[in-house]
Design brief:
Largest sheet: 10 strands, mixed
Structural class: alpha/beta
Shape: globular
Low-confidence stretches: none
Mean pLDDT: 94
Number of helices: 14
Length: 352
């Protein structure tokens, strides 16, 4: 196959971890006789520096022409530390989600046998954890009306959802649940929020279309608690934008490192694959960042965007091998040898 992939490395450690994923993808392509056409484009702080816009039209055109997008991370301290900045890297991420129709962030959380004791949670609480959180990405408080009043002394952010937005996300959740354990949890705050009551009402109306799926409804604060108590009790969870943002970061550390978890953002036009960690600017340029989440995101891309399951399995197998043999960066090495980001990438590509 000929695979056209847009490459958005972004800021901070983004370029370093994306470079390692490219090495692995190219190795897989060679092994399975595929042709990869990479097209690079700017987004985030580096795009602001280049043209004053965090998601330029030229970048959007590259993404629209691609079969899939492999993305690194965005963010820079000079914007994080300036609350009055009018143009911010994160605006590019929101704009990209909106223009590409990236309505669902799919974040798996699972454990690795060789790393289970690296988790901050006890082994007996996390063994067997294999869950997926679907976060709605283009609605809610991040896209609602916002502003200041009373001479700037009062601020407001409005959470708005339509039934259609909820149905679109929930449909994907039901479909994924049907391929797994047929359990779906709708996460909301329906005892307080009207938008959450619409979420619950909408999902309840959809239950009849998926009679084999057992659906539960839980408040977001209870789910936050249970994720650190018994995460293996969950299978597929669906939720709105803000709740999903928080819960997915909480779930990500169950594995032992945020640098291990991949994600996919399902789109109306194309889909995007990215590690769940941020730009980690403190590590940028030091060749110490963990590239495995980005590499595993590439595995999701092979499977989800192209239907190439053997290629995805080859990536996951070599990642598991690297973990078992201790070919890891400093966040996972402990008292053992820590490999450089680039060394891990070279090892993975060689062993595909």
């Amino acid at each position: 196959m000929k695979l056209n992939i847009a490459l958005l490395a972004g800021d901070g450690i983004g370029p370093e971890v994306v470079d390692q994923a490219v090495k692995v993808v190219n190795a897989v392509a060679t092994k399975f006789n595929h042709e990869i056409n990479w097209t690079s484009a700017l987004t985030g702080a580096c795009a602001i520096d280049d043209c004053g816009e965090p998601y330029p039209d030229s970048t959007h055109e590259v993404c629209m022409a691609a079969d899939a997008v492999l993305f690194g991370a965005i963010g820079h301290p000079k914007y994080d530390n300036d609350p009055k900045a009018t143009v911010r890297p994160e605006q590019g991420l929101l704009k990209m989600r909106q223009k590409l129709g990236l309505f669902a962030n799919v974040r798996p959380t699972f454990t690795f046998p060789s790393l289970i004791d690296n988790s901050p949670l006890k082994r007996e609480r996390i063994e067997g954890t294999d869950l997926i959180i679907l976060r709605e990405l283009t609605g809610g408080i991040y896209f609602g009306e916002r502003g200041r009043k009373d001479n700037g002394n009062t601020a407001f952010d409005t959470c708005t959802y339509t039934r259609a937005e909820i149905q679109r996300l929930a449909k994907l959740g039901f479909e994924i649940a049907m391929t797994r354990s047929k359990k779906l949890c709708c996460v909301d705050k329906a005892n307080v929020l009207e938008s959450s009551r619409l979420w619950r009402e909408t999902v309840q109306d959809m239950e009849k279309d998926y009679p084999e799926v057992t659906v539960s409804y839980e408040f977001v604060d209870a789910v936050a608690m249970r994720l650190v108590q018994w995460p293996n009790s969950y299978d597929v969870l669906i939720t709105e934008n803000l709740f999903g943002d928080i819960l997915t970061d909480e779930a990500s550390v169950i594995s032992g490192s945020m640098g291990l978890m991949p994600s996919a953002s399902k789109g109306l036009h194309t889909s995007l694959y990215e590690p769940i960690h941020g730009s980690y600017p403190q590590a940028a340029g030091k060749d110490i960042a963990n590239p495995l989440a980005t590499v595993l995101s590439a595995a999701m891309m092979f499977e989800d965007a192209f239907g190439l399951h053997a290629e995805a399995a080859a990536i996951r197998d070599v990642v598991n091998k690297s973990l078992a043999e201790g070919v890891v960066t400093e966040d996972l090495a402990g008292s053992n040898k820590a490999y450089k980001t680039s060394e891990v990438g070279d090892w993975l590509a060689k062993n595909v």
